[in-house]
Design brief:
12 strands; globular; alpha/beta; about 350 residues; single chain; 12 helices; Rossmann fold; about 30% helix; two-stranded antiparallel sheet
């Protein structure tokens, strides 16, 4: 059933290298670079280069009161230097208040507070997971000002073809640079996550930075995990018209006819392979085409198989409320309710992490 539904979408194939089908992981690694360049040119823009150097400063340390003393919260400042000029942004770093090396989730957040409505930090820390989070608008504003925030440092003399989704993804990679210097973080098991369009930013971070072992775009929809071909939720060009600053300039023309796009969203998801990809949807989420997201998960299985991985293991049927699929390297669950990222979503994602630790 699922295979037939994928065929009905008439998707281009990420394993098609100018008419030749990629049949080995070595061939895919070459093809993968071409897919990255295609997505950068066609949709998201270039993943920004690293700054000349980074530094961090402590702002506040909370041990006694954070999560009833079961966790530690460090409020920190990242300084990204472009030449001699630093761009500062704040981030939170929290972890269990005990010895050990902990898997880490870098969360691209709508809020600078911890906890907040999407980030139940006490529940996460109780499961021995560390979390680093930052507010996305502290990097650059969620509007069409392409000189705001870090963009004025990255591109001081010229306009950029890099969309803001890529810039928010870039910031997650900087947090990872810092996290890998810490003795209490399990460097082999770092995840990046986000909800909604920040789920797309998390997916981009995981696709373009191979150091992330787990990638979790929650209900990312358009230009994230949801296929554009056959998508039931309106018109892609209308979406881009509302928030075109998130994408490259070339995407404005391409998005007018999704059937002629040289890719679809399974190309982006495939870049995560052979690492772990996780996706979650809500049964009553009318704003996300959950069918198209699930099909993307299934459509990347061929890439995972090149590495001897199983991808999404499913029952050849669309998911129902309560379904959890964790046995493959592409995980998925469908919960009851509407568009959100709640404790249940976090709990299932942590189950997936713990069952696939490196």
């Amino acid at each position: 059933m699922i295979t037939n539904e994928i065929k009905k979408r008439e998707l281009p194939c990420p394993l098609n290298d100018n008419g030749k089908i990629v049949k080995s992981k070595d061939e895919w690694l070459t093809q993968r670079q071409e897919v990255k360049e295609l997505l950068s040119d066609s949709c998201y823009g270039t993943f920004p280069a690293k700054p000349d150097r980074i530094d961090t400063k402590n702002i506040k340390l909370d041990i006694d009161d954070f999560c009833a003393a079961s966790g530690v919260l460090e409020r920190k400042m990242m300084l990204a230097y472009f030449g001699d000029i630093a761009f500062p942004f704040a981030f939170n770093f929290s972890y269990p208040n005990k010895p050990g090396k902990f898997p880490l989730v870098i969360y691209i957040d709508y809020s600078s507070e911890m906890p907040n409505q999407y980030l139940p930090i006490e529940d996460i820390i109780d499961r021995d997971i560390a979390v680093a989070s930052f507010k996305y608008t502290d990097i650059t504003a969620d509007n069409g000002d392409m000189t705001d925030g870090v963009l004025s440092r990255m591109f001081p003399k010229e306009s950029t073809n890099t969309g803001k989704l890529m810039v928010w993804a870039w910031a997650a990679s900087l947090i990872l640079d810092y996290a890998l210097t810490r003795d209490n973080i399990d460097a082999d098991n770092v995840a990046v996550a986000g909800h909604g369009f920040l789920g797309t930013a998390a997916l981009l971070a995981g696709a373009y930075d191979d150091r992330f072992a787990f990638v979790y775009p929650n209900s990312s929809s358009w230009t994230g995990m949801a296929l554009s071909r056959g998508n039931k939720n309106g018109n892609l060009s209308e979406h881009v018209g509302r928030c075109g600053y998130m994408y490259s300039r070339s995407f404005f023309e391409l998005c007018n006819n999704v059937d002629t796009l040289p890719y679809d969203q399974h190309y982006l998801a495939a870049l995560v392979a052979p690492r772990n990809l996780y996706v979650a949807n809500a049964a009553e989420d009318d704003g996300t085409d959950t069918v198209s997201e699930f099909l993307t998960c299934a459509a990347v299985n061929g890439v995972y198989e090149l590495f001897g991985k199983s991808g999404l293991v499913h029952k050849d049927a669309f998911p129902c409320e309560g379904d959890v699929m964790h046995s493959g390297n592409v995980g998925y669950h469908m919960r009851r309710g509407t568009n959100y990222m709640n404790r249940y979503d976090w709990d299932k994602f942590i189950d997936f992490i713990k069952s696939h630790l490196n």
